[in-house]
Amino acid sequence: MKKFFNKLEAKADALSQEFLGQASPSKTPVHQNQPSTIQPPTSDDIFRYRYHHGANLGSIFVLEKWLSGSMFPESAKGESELDAVKASVKKKGIDETRCIWENHWRSAVSQQDWDWFRNAAKGTSIRLPVGWWIMGGSEQASRLKGTEWAGLEDVYCNAWTIVREFVATAHNYGVGVLLDLHGLPGGANAEDHSGTSSHKASLWGNKKNLTLAKQSLHFMATEIHADMHGVEGLQIINESVHNAEGMYDFYSEVIEIIGRVDESIPIIISDAWDLPTAINWTQSRHPYNCRRNPIIIDTHRYYTFSDKDRASSPQQIISTIPNELHEVNPGTLCEKGEVQIIVGEWSNVLDGQTWTRASPQEKDPLIHQFGLSQSSRWLRKSSGSYFWTFKMDWMDGGEWGFVEQNKKSNILIPPFLTIPFSDIHSLISNAQAERQVACGQARGDHENYWNGTTPGEAFEHHLFGEGWEVGFEDAMTFFGARCQGRIPGGTGCGGDRIGGVEGWVKKRVLESGQRGKYAWEWEQGFRSGVGCFERAVGILQC
């Protein structure tokens, strides 16, 4: 694997030698400028690039017995979706099983649940795990043929339609959906939540399984591109085993497949429990020579499973949170390349052995501190986070429950999601009044710095000003989207901020058409404009 990465890095260096490195005039790639294609952010853009404050909806389309034991007949031989559905079909037949499964899917989130999620929890996003076996279309039966899912297509024949209905309902509430291909053919990991209890990660090194995975992802991308508004991204894999052979080749191939369908769809990859390597890989991709799709790394943060966690006290674990995600230090696109992450799963659960190191009276305050420390850190260092999980048989879910942890105020709601619409209008008006002066100050500071650093250099400082104006306008559009009716389901409060800023910067830099020696000035101006607006309205994350 090390040899593979050495080869990959060497290839990337050859492609992007001029681009990667310090954001200075001598390191910027020289290409011919192109016409600008920048347009105002669309509703879909805002769904995709705003900060995602969300939860997983686990064990709905990919069953897990510990969450949904009621779906498992007593005769089920294991704890996976396949075990449950086979036992049900054997006991009740295909038709009754289909009815039971469809009721589970359709009743997972009630109107009351949606109202609570949007209004009380201020949720903006659902991460929805799905399995490859539910992919619909005329080829569903042929894809399942010869696999462990063969003969079950009639149970799942309406599953994708119900996923589409779920996405549409979420969109009507102003909630985005991250479609997560949680269960892949053969399994990207050996866990039951991959869909089977084979306890093998048989996706890797298996040509048939890899082909089925690519077909499933192509199907999903085509559906998203056609008319699935509110889908904020497509996660192509969940929790890959560490150091899987050919994983990054698979990522590259899938990015190309999805990019041919739609280069606007954000693509989420697994860090495979190795965030630094995933960051290095995304940064090695030259934005001018690759598909334009934003690439987002999904990393999961749990503190209950390892021997180290069990041997630690709650206070010791909490003390580590401020240093989490320290690997994420994005610079400019010109300097470091693309790097953006989400925390796709996290919880407030600590192991019983950990709790033996605290008194019973300390538990509730420590959980409160633990949850706020985590959610504060994710807000600062990621483009979104998704608590595990929203629904289970045993509501409200304890430290695994998004509902219970919100009711106990153990999850930080981003403050900008609670600002009244009337205040948002006022804040935007005040920021606009200061805009011209702020732009002049920022441009002056930029020009003075670079003219002093490199006297006599023929910079193109006007690019900084042009980028600044676009950045300020974009940040203002995101912030005012709800109160101006650009996002459905407005409830009288909430502004949005650009959470996926690295992906948005990449999108805007490419759309600007700037490819010359001083394109970096446009990017710096854009980032400055975003920051200036967010500072003016009080939502800048330091």
TrEMBL record:
Gene Ontology MF term list: glucan endo-1,6-beta-glucosidase activity
InterPro entries linked: GH (IPR017853), Glyco_hydro_5 (IPR001547), Glycosyl_hydrolase_5 (IPR050386)
Family (UniProt): Belongs to the glycosyl hydrolase 5 (cellulase A) family.
Gene3D superfamilies registered for this protein in UniProt: Glycosidases (3.20.20.80)
Keyword annotations from UniProtKB, A to Z: Cell wall biogenesis/degradation, Glycosidase, Hydrolase
Organism (species): Hymenoscyphus albidus
Domain of life: Eukaryota
Keyword Hydrolase applies: yes
Protein's recorded name: Glycoside hydrolase family 5 domain-containing protein
